[in-house]
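Record type: monomer structure entry
Structure origin: computed from sequence
Chain ID: A
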Amino acid sequence: MPVIEITVAYYLGIDGGGSKTTCAVGDETSVLATALSGPSNITRVGEVRARESLHEAISQACAAAKIDPRQVHRACIGVAGAGRPEIARAVGKIIAEVIAGEIEVVGDMQIALQAALGAGPGVIVIAGTGSIAYGRDAQGKTARAGGWGFAISDEGSAHWIGRKAVAAVLRAADEAADDRAAQQTPLLFREMKSIWKVESFEQLARTANTNPDFASLLPAVVAAADAGDELAEQVLREAGRELAQLVGIVVRRLFMGDNAVIPLAMAGGVFRYAPLMREVFCAAVHTLDPRLELNGQVVDPVAGALGMARRAG
């Protein structure tokens, strides 16, 4: 009796972010393994660091799935800035160094929308290191708001929150009655000190003006807000309102004159780890448009990347 050889197709999805990279390996129906590595957003960390993170994530995920990366049939990678041809080419080239199969590089908002809604209409808002709102109507038309880069946009993101928090602390120091009072307040500054290794407002200002990792301050802001610090609470509340405004822009561009329910989903570490911001955002979108139906769970974009890798076949 002849031996029948069964060939298994393996797929790989990557969510390449500004703080971390998530890789998932699966077959046609299941996820076999996932792995995490460092940041892989080329525009933020450069090509060398991005290569290290992407290769590490792929290697670890494939090892956990007990397959060789060269067995991957198709891969989909979602990264910020993929709409720029030079970024997409650079990322594709990096992945091709370890994977022999087909490679598709798309925007991070595309894999997040796929994870949340599949091929259906709706809106996804991402708040990670950066931020963006992205939507698709029933006819397949898409629209975005925000996500124009940390220097001028990315409202409500971890970077935006960190920068706003530093500015709020320094303004509070300016307004304090004397230096002693300034050093005692606010709690937010004391939380920041251990992360950025600063001891004074002058050191905080100098660090803030050297292009630092503002997103790394998110845990400090969240911890201070949880402890009742008013400055931290104000920053997180403003972040929630800013993200809701991005959703409103996308809704007006895509769903005017349509009475159907509009699914809305959230993605990104700010939604996952900043409960006050998420609470304010949810309250704001509930009053924004009665058609919006919010999924309260924070979706995992890498699932969308893996789904797009499978679907491409």
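Annotation 1: The chain has twelve helices and ten strands.
Annotation 2: The longest helix spans residues 230-254.
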